[in-house]
Write a structure and sequence with these properties.
This protein is about 50% helix and about 15% strand. It has nine helices and eight strands. The strands form two sheets. Strands 1, 2, 3, 6, 7 and 8 form a six-stranded parallel beta sheet that branches. Strands 4-5 form a two-stranded parallel ribbon. β1, α2 and β2 form a beta-alpha-beta unit. The protein is globular, with a radius of gyration of 27 Å.
């Protein structure tokens, strides 16, 4: 066989091989299924927690609960004991709708500025008020201002809960700024700090819930993050 024929056969072989490879690749892409956020299993969704301090608020907490219920989202509420007075039914609703309740002390005081005994009493008084209302003792406490009293965990059997993402909703009281700050900063396993005592915070929280759900995040209560 002449060299020209050999080269011609080789060229035909390469063309046919390339065509077959292209056909296989095209069919594979056509058959490929790309999972959307809604198709991920619970194990595959990155988990985060929405938490709300300083409630309950007679106006804004119900509005927030309505929005969370509509979206099938559970959050964590750290309640100030004195704010439960007159809002007992609202606190019961928080519990009945599957949210986690924690103590935010009774008077919203900075624990590390108190004596050990007064700090303990503040936490337990808030916790006892929750028990009187719901019949359940809380295992979680969020110290106001994030200021935990050193060695206080040796005096009470509760778990202090901090946060990774501070929405600064109390400071800006601007829905758009709150949403942008949280959505920009959040990562898997984060605990988001918000407050259910401002209308702008409630609006922002629900927008954040929608945006991050669309991104594939799953909202859980803090015990699911801390104890799993």
């Amino acid at each position: 066989m002449s060299k020209n024929k050999i080269w011609l056969c080789l060229a035909v072989f390469l063309v046919l091989t390339a065509a077959a490879a292209l056909k296989y690749s095209t069919e594979s892409v056509g058959q490929m299924h790309i999972q959307t956020a809604g198709e991920l299993s619970d194990e595959e969704h990155p988990k985060i927690a929405l938490t709300f301090d300083d409630g309950p608020h007679a106006v804004y907490t119900p509005k927030l609960l309505d929005g969370l219920k509509k979206r099938g989202i559970h959050a964590t509420f750290f309640l100030i004991g004195k704010n439960i007075e007159g809002n007992e039914e609202l606190v019961k609703r928080i519990q009945e709708e599957g949210h986690l309740i924690g103590s935010h002390t009774y008077n919203h005081v900075q624990l590390n500025k108190l004596s050990e005994s007064k700090a303990r009493d503040e936490v337990l008084k808030g916790c006892n008020k929750i028990y009187e209302t719901t019949g359940t003792y809380s295992s979680f406490v969020r110290p106001p201002y994030g200021a935990w009293k050193k060695n206080l965990d040796f005096c009470i059997t509760m778990i202090p809960v901090s946060w990774n993402v501070d929405s600064l909703d109390w400071k800006t009281q601007n829905t758009e700024k709150i949403v942008k700050r949280v959505v920009k900063d959040v990562e898997e396993g984060d605990i988001i700090l918000m407050h259910d005592i401002f209308d702008t915070s409630v609006e922002a929280a629900l927008q954040i819930a929608d945006a991050l759900t669309e991104e594939g995040y799953q909202f859980v209560t803090v015990d699911e993050l801390l104890l799993e």
